[in-house]
Design brief:
single chain; about 240 residues; Spore Coat Polysaccharide Biosynthesis Protein SpsA, Chain A; 6 helices
Length: about 240
């Protein structure tokens, strides 16, 4: 199985840090954020990784090169200025990803989920498998609901979030930015055009084609300088063993 790391975002909330450094290369725990992903992917047995980039992408290629430092083979999927959004970036990289299911990880998260799970978690009848986490303080409403291993917008059997004027968020979880996808999920996306991932997932959910799991371990959306500093301190306290 191949893996893709999404690294094309501008990192507006990280400014001024990202004015001169792409967000995936910001240091946390003594190494670039993206290097934690590469280390875990290599340890899980992955060998081929695709990384998309746009903002300061040349720095990413110069820092990671071929991936040999991690025992990986890295190929790059450059995008135009402004990038192509999540689904657009994945669709643009499909020629590199191939016809089999693949793992996608957001480059701006830190998570101890085991990538080795990606090889077995997607059922034949499903088009996507999502990793979900408990809602963090900065995203209390969550994204999707998880019931018996199935992901939907429902907060309870028969009740959709779209039809509720006030909906209970007790069953809602946050998308971790980690998913296993079949290429068919992106069949309606025109290569080279921006496209968001959420509408594609919602359509697949409505068709009963999305499974999921709750990850109870460490997960941080490293979206602001404050969260970056907090994660760096957490890793220091833990002896960088997370």
């Amino acid at each position: 199985m191949k893996a893709m790391i999404l690294a094309a975002g501008r990192g507006e909330r990280m400014r001024p840090l990202t004015d001169t450094c792409p967000k995936p290369l910001l240091s946390v725990g003594g190494r670039p954020l993206i290097a934690w992903h590469l280390q875990r992917l290599a340890a899980a047995g992955f060998r081929e990784v695709i990384i998309n980039h746009a903002h300061l992408g040349a720095q990413i290629e110069a820092a990671l090169q071929t991936g040999a430092a991690w025992g990986l083979s890295i190929r790059y999927s450059p995008e135009p200025a402004g990038a192509l959004e999540t689904a657009g970036g994945i669709a643009n990289a499909l020629p590199l990803l191939g016809d089999a299911p693949f793992l996608v990880i957001n480059g701006d998260i830190f998570c101890d989920w085991d990538p080795a799970r990606a090889t077995t978690c997607l059922a034949e009848s499903d088009i996507a498998h999502l990793v979900l986490v408990d809602n963090p303080a900065h995203h209390p409403q969550g994204d999707f609901a998880l019931h018996d291993g199935r992901v939907s917008e429902k907060v309870g059997p028969g009740d959709t979030a779209r039809r509720q004027s006030t909906f209970d968020t007790a069953n809602q979880l946050t998308f971790a930015g980690i998913g296993v996808y079949r290429p068919a999920l992106f069949s309606t996306v025109t290569r080279g055009q921006p496209a968001k991932l959420a509408p594609l997932l919602r359509t697949a959910m409505a068709n009963g084609q999305v499974s999921g799991e709750r990850h109870p371990g460490c997960w941080v959306d490293v979206g602001t300088p404050q969260r970056l500093a907090e994660l760096d301190a957490q890793l220091a306290r833990a002896g960088r063993a997370l």
